[in-house]
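worker-03 picked up job from queue 'complexes'. Input manifest follows; two sequence lines, order preserved.
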Amino acid sequence: KVPEVGGEGRIQDPPELQEQRARAALRERYLRSLLAMVGHPVSFTLHEGVHVTAQFGATDLDVANFYVSQLQTPIGVQAEALLRCSDIISYSFKL
Amino acid sequence: MSEWMKKSPLEWQDYVYKEVRVVASEKKEYKGWLVTTDPVSANIVLVTFLEDGSLSVTGVMGHSVQTVEVVSEGDHKVREKLMRLFTSVDCEGYSP
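worker-03 finished. Artifact:
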């Protein structure tokens, strides 16, 4: 397929290539933001107004769970835990 | 599934480096500079610059996002700061 010529006489990439490039850039930056979070104390906002803090460790590739340590819960400290991402509204940390 | 999760990568990219207000589940509201949206989970990463020079990073889970509204288009200075963030291993530079 011949690439289309843009309005300014530039050869534009086909839409699927542009989309793939955008997807890759967004994903890479997201993974790097997770990398920056490793070892930091992170505060999680869960449903029903529950807040917990923990040290972030890792996540799975579809971002379904967060593996954390030293999870501070209202009923005590859990040394290691998996937080289901479906239970989380947001998370935040400082850099 | 929310409107936000159904967007395409190119639509998500339109929000990058803009200041946005995100409304999430349970009427939670977040404001900050949008750095990226994970194309897999639709999770949004927002950054705010704190007065002491540090950064606050907030992730809003894609499944809980209700609306995303652009507050400001941003400028070159902010854009440059945000572009350096998370682009290479030198994010260590922001640690205390």
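worker-03 released lock.
Chain B has a mean pLDDT of 90.
The beta strands of chain B are 19-24, 29-37, 44-49, 55-60, 65-72.
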